[in-house]
Amino acid sequence: MKIRSIFTTAVLLTMMLLYGCGGGGGSSSTHPEGSVTISGVAAMGPISGGDVKVYAVKDGKIDTSAVLGTGKTAADGSYTITLDSAPTGPVIVEVTGGTYTDEASGTPGVSNKMKLRAAVSSVAD
Question: What pLDDT does residue 122 have?
């Protein structure tokens, strides 16, 4: 059971890292000039209704004193968060809560009780 949990977490973090940062920003009516968009998929099976927060990394540590952006995951685990401006340096995308369908057993509505994080080395506008 513990090995499955470790494997699932590793797969999730890899997926979030690979898909955790989408380009974006620009001057459209939905995204103010100078803003940047981060999008991705949170999955242990897609996490629906999870809370997503974006934090800056300062001096090698997560700066939890200031949230750069927040959002929710959709039913398919996807999220899109628009930040007012591109942070300088890496960010951490954190997903908590929500539910998912366990991929091993097929059990739906499993509560996500873990804090899932992925590092994004840089975000460009």
Answer: 83
d(CA 123, CA 36): 8
Quote the CA–CA distance of 18 and 69 in Å, as a whole number.
19
CA 120, 16, 30 angle in degrees (round to 5)?
70
At 109, is the secondary structure helix, strand, or coil?
A: coil
**Hey, which residues does 99 pair with through a beta bridge?**
48, 111
DSSP state letter for 44: T
Picking from 123, 122, 77, 67, the residue whose alpha carbon sits closest to that of residue 97 is: 77
The 10s digit of each residue's pLDDT in 62-84 is: 999 989 999 999 999 999 999 98
Structural contact between residues 54 and 92, judged by C-beta atoms closer than 8 angstroms? yes
Q: How far apart are the C-alpha atoms of 111 and 125, rounded to whole Å?
A: 34
CA distance 98 to 76: 11
Show Cβ contacts of residue 59 under 8 Å, excluding neighbours closer than 6 positions: none
